[in-house]
From TrEMBL:
Main location: membrane
Highest rank taxon of the organism: Eukaryota
Species lineage: Eukaryota, Viridiplantae, Streptophyta, Embryophyta, Tracheophyta
UniProtKB keywords: Cell membrane, Lipoprotein, Membrane, Palmitate
The UBL3-like ubiquitin domain, residue ranges: 6-115
Protein location: Cell membrane
Membrane topology designation: Lipid-anchor
Pfam families the UniProt entry points to: Rad60-SLD_2
Cellular compartments per GO CC: plasma membrane
Protein name: Membrane-anchored ubiquitin-fold protein
């Protein structure tokens, strides 16, 4: 019986309403492992897919999951339904644009201008 409890069925809901999964994960799996799984299974036809684990935020039961936690630690009481599938929401943070980085580092922007009337 404990072997069944150590596995969780999880599906990942993307922002457009489509899903990845469901797939079975051990309760000892880290949130980082889940994110790596999402990146490897990301639909090729979708634009702006995540490139790294840092680009992905997972939300379960209204909480953003931390990378260093395990799935078992993040489990909500609703996940204890036998045979139930847990839905986690996936939020992808787009990488900053190169143009924005240049504007921030532009020394002209940091000048102070005073006008005396």
């Amino acid at each position: 019986m404990s072997g069944v409890q150590d596995q969780l069925e999880i599906k990942f809901r993307l922002s457009d309403g489509s899903d990845i999964g469901p797939k079975s994960f051990p309760a000892a799996a880290s949130v980082t492992y889940l994110k790596e799984s999402i990146i490897s299974q990301w639909p090729k036809e979708k634009e702006n897919g995540p490139r790294t684990v840092k680009d992905v935020k997972l939300i379960s039961a209204g909480r953003i999951l931390e990378n260093n936690r395990t799935v078992g630690e993040c489990r909500s009481p609703l996940c204890d339904i036998p045979g139930g599938v847990t839905t986690m929401h996936v939020v992808v943070q787009p990488p900053p644009l190169e143009k924005e980085k240049k504007v921030i580092n532009d020394p002209k922007q940091n000048k102070c201008v005073c006008v005396i009337l």
